[in-house]
Amino acid sequence: MASRRGNAKTGEQADKYSVLLPTYNERENLPLIVWLLVKYFGESGYNYEIIVIDDGSPDGTLQIAEQLQKIYGADKILLRPRAKKLGLGTAYIHGIKHASGNFIIIMDADLSHHVNTLPVKRKEGGYDLVSGTRYRGDGGVYGWDLRRKLISRGANFITQVLLRPGASDLTGSFRLYKTEVLEKLVEQCVSKGYVFQMEMIVRARQLGYTVGEVPISFVDRVYGESKLGGNEIVSFLKGLLTLFATT
Amino acid sequence: MTKLLEWLLGVSLIGVAWGLVTFDLLDLQLPPQYRELAWPMPVYLLVAFGCYSLAAVGYRVATFNDCEDAAKELQAQIKEAKEDLKKKGLKMNHISLEVSHVH
Is there a contact between A153 and B65 if contact means CB atoms under 8 Å apart? Predict the structure, then answer.
């Protein structure tokens, strides 16, 4: 598999970034995400591709993706759908198989950021992994009330004490990985959901990979999507304790 | 070694050291001041950690950045994207994206 990307390693100009977008019912967000990615990558001149991994969304996300493919070209927008909702880890594995870039960017479909900050930071430090953080530098959030901020910072504090992960924001999912690093990590990680994202960074540090951080602004785009209820908190703690005991 | 094991090891080591000094298990005949100081140490440390935690979380919540500019920029970009995509021929029933407001 390394030979397929052999050419890409010979020079900085040959760097290519594959953006993996696992989607489920993102009919409205997907065009905006793609538009922003095209805009920022276009401005920065980086070579990129966007791989949309739709898990059989009933709302027609795939049809929107097909239209976007017609607009921007099938070399830039790749569609690799799956029949049903199969989970994030397998979506990444699936995406990696079809990615031709030597770097992989992953992002939630309902976030939007200046995507070019990731490659820039990576180049600066030659990192194996670059993670977006809301908690450092001028990273931050928009529209969060006190309760949500308290829970977020409290949970992060507990995470830092228990796991000492060497990264300030573990639950974010705006990251850039070297392709071979992502492959290795996805093999090793067993958790589900956002605990999977946390486990990725913890394992990365254990395996000796270098982790860089860039501040990001987290702006909730979808009205009223605040998922910090009691159940979320309990499942977060469960996931955290599992990582504590197993990594 | 998992983090859990690291913690258990660390706590055990500290516990043994504390027990040795407080209860004079090795019959070291340490001066009484040592024992008086060591005896409440675990509680002191827990309280100190508790205070530190509250202070740290409080500080971090207070300094949690609110990205007004990013939100405004995003609003503008959503508009721009809608128009641009429409021009390029994207057909949707509606794109009802909005930046969520302060709850």
Answer: no
Q: Which of B3, B71, B103 sits opposite A219 (nearest CB)?
A: B71
- Cβ distance A35 to B84 less than 8 Å, yes or no, reads yes
User: Using CB atoms, which residue from B57, B64, B81 is nearest to A32?
Assistant: B81
Per-residue model confidence as pLDDT tens digits over A39-72: 888 888 889 999 999 988 888 889 999 999 999 9
Q: Domain range holding B69? A: 2-88
Q: Is residue B96 part of a domain?
A: no
Q: Which tens digits make up the pLDDT trace of A18-38?
A: 999 988 888 888 888 899 889
- Interface residue A81 vs chain B (CB under 8 A): no
Q: Quick: pLDDT tens for A81-123.
A: 998 888 778 888 899 999 999 999 988 765 656 666 777 787 7
Give the pair of three-digit tokens for residue A230.
Answer: 């009691």
Residue B15 inside a domain? The answer is: yes
Is the confidence at residue B97, as pLDDT, over 70? Answer: no
Please give the tally of structural domains in chain B. 1
Nearest C-alpha neighbor of B83 from the set A31, A97, A72 = A31
CB-side exposure of A213: number of CA atoms within 13 Å?
18
Rounded to 10°, the helix A230-246/B3-23 angle is 80
Query: Is residue B97 one of the residues assigned to a domain?
Result: no
